[in-house]
Every structure is written in C-alpha cells, then in structure tokens.
Design goal:
The protein has 2 domains: 132 residues, 3-Layer(aba) Sandwich (Rossmann fold); 90 residues, no CATH class. β3, α4 and β4 form a beta-alpha-beta unit. The chain is of the alpha/beta class and 272 residues long. 56% of the residues lie in helices and 10% in strands. The longest helix is centred in the last third of the chain and has 21 residues. The relative contact order is 0.12. The radius of gyration is 20 Å and the shape is globular. α3 runs parallel beside α4, α7 runs antiparallel to α8 and α9 crosses α11.
Length: 272
C-alpha cells in the first residue's frame, strides 16, 4: 500500500480492499486524502469520478454536484450486468437536497455489480437516508512521526518549512504532500495564518479589518480552520475558561458557515 494511513484506518482499508460494500462513505478533514483512498479502493474497476462543477460544467472545488450528473450516472449504471464498476462521488456533500434524493434512488435500487464510494468533509450535510445506506469509514490523521517520514523525501525543505507544514497539516497526508510540493500555496496560507492570529488574539480594530476581508465562504472557512488550530495550540499550552470559550465560539462559527450560514454575521459574532 503506497498510501499512508493511521494504523487502525489502514486495517479497515485493507479489509475493504478485499470486500467492497455496495456503498461506502469516506469521511475526514480536508487534506486527509479521501479521493486518493477512494481511487485506491476502486482500483482497476473505477468507472467514473463525479465531482462538483461550476455553472459551465467545469470541475470546481467550490461548485456543486448537479442533478443532471446523477441522472446521467443512473443511465450508466443501468447497463451494467456482469463487470464490476465503482463510481466515486467526490465531495458528496456538495449535492443539494434535490440531487441527494435523486442519488438516494440509486442506493435504493442497487445493481449487483455497481459500487459507490462517497467522500465527504462535511458528512452532516448528507441526508440520513443516504448515510444509513452506506458503510462509513473515518480517515484519521497520521502521527507526527509518520508525518515526518512522509516529509523526509522532500530534501529541499528546511527545518522551518517542515515545522510549518507539520503544524498546518495536522496529520493530513494529502495536505502534507500538497504543501511540500507547492511553496506558493504554503506562502498563501502564511497570509491566512497571520489573519487567523489577528482574529484569535489581535486588537478589536485588527479583528474588524480581518473580518471585513473575508466574504468568500471557502476563504472564511480556511480562516476559521487556522484560527481553531491556533486556539487549540494555545489551549494545550495553558487551558483557561476564556481559551475554552474562544475555541468553542470559533468552532461554532465554522460549523454554521459550513452549513451555509451568513458569513458576515457569524464572523461578526466573534467580536462580541
């Protein structure tokens, strides 16, 4: 197995590679390597990957999975009789309610040789009627030691950069590799980290300035992810009631924005 997993997760993945259920849901944080894991499990039987698209039909991380994609998938799966076929629904939580109901019909009328692997960083957005029909596996973070071993092959990285990646990735192997291979992305994240530091511990005027800049949902979620990391680190060093409350409020804001809550209102609530 070329992918790196936490030991318990690795045992589960090995078992799944021998017997894939009709529907599998892979969950985990962004950068955990959900799509890579899904591809590994599908192997040579991978038929297609369904991903979110923009209004022009181009793959886009901040797009949605459209009902036409699911209807087309339904047509594809009807003709499969003998050969096994695996379809990956990447970022399945990007299906709206109507699209999820259309996909549910596929799960309710399974073809014997068709398997679905869903990936989701926000599985709480999936209908319970979908999750109840899937076998669910959480891709857990790898250890600090395993993270360092993964980074050891990148000889060009200095100790400061390695420390930054270890902190930012927090055991997510796909993100570790991505940051190690893309210095520009790491630099961009550095800017967000500075804003997160201001949001967590800056003066009120600095926090206001940060909030005013973050109107895009994905960017706001990134800001809050790093703010939560910083707050967790501070809470580990010195746990106080104020630190615990701050962490809880940041987490609540993240969850509400992820569930399509008003970005400006949720960020502004952190100033109170």
């Amino acid at each position: 197995m070329s992918l790196i997993f936490e030991p318990t997760t690795e045992q589960q993945i090995r078992a799944l590679s021998r017997h894939l259920p009709q529907a599998l849901l892979l969950t985990g944080a962004d950068g955990a390597g959900l799509l890579s894991t899904a591809k590994y499990l599908a192997g040579s039987t991978l038929a297609e990957i369904i991903q979110p698209t923009d209004k022009d039909g181009q793959a886009a991380a901040n797009g949605i999975i459209r009902i036409d994609q699911i209807r087309q998938l339904r047509q594809y799966t009807r003709g499969i009789t003998n050969n096994q076929a695996v379809y990956i629904i990447d970022n399945a939580d990007k299906m709206n309610h109507q699209t999820q109901n259309a996909f549910l019909k596929l799960l309710e009328e399974p073809s014997r040789n068709v398997h679905f692997i869903l990936t989701s960083h926000q599985s709480n957005l999936l209908l319970p009627t979908i999750t109840s029909r899937t076998e669910r596996i959480a891709i857990r973070p790898i250890s600090d030691e395993a993270s360092r071993l993964l980074l050891a092959k990148y000889k060009q990285l200095d100790t400061t950069t390695i420390a930054q990646i270890l902190f930012l990735a927090s055991g997510r192997p796909a993100l570790i590799s991505r940051l190690a291979n893309n210095p520009s992305e790491l630099a961009n994240i550095g800017v967000t980290i500075k804003d997160a530091q201001a949001l967590v511990s800056g003066k009120r005027r600095d926090r206001l300035a940060v909030i005013a800049r973050y109107t895009d949902r994905e960017q706001a979620l990134a800001l809050l992810r790093y703010s939560i990391l910083l707050a967790q680190s501070a809470n580990t060093r010195r746990s106080t009631r104020a630190a615990i409350t701050k962490l809880a409020r940041l987490t609540e804001a993240y969850e509400r924005i992820a569930a399509n809550g008003n970005i400006k209102l949720q960020l502004a609530a952190l100033l109170v």
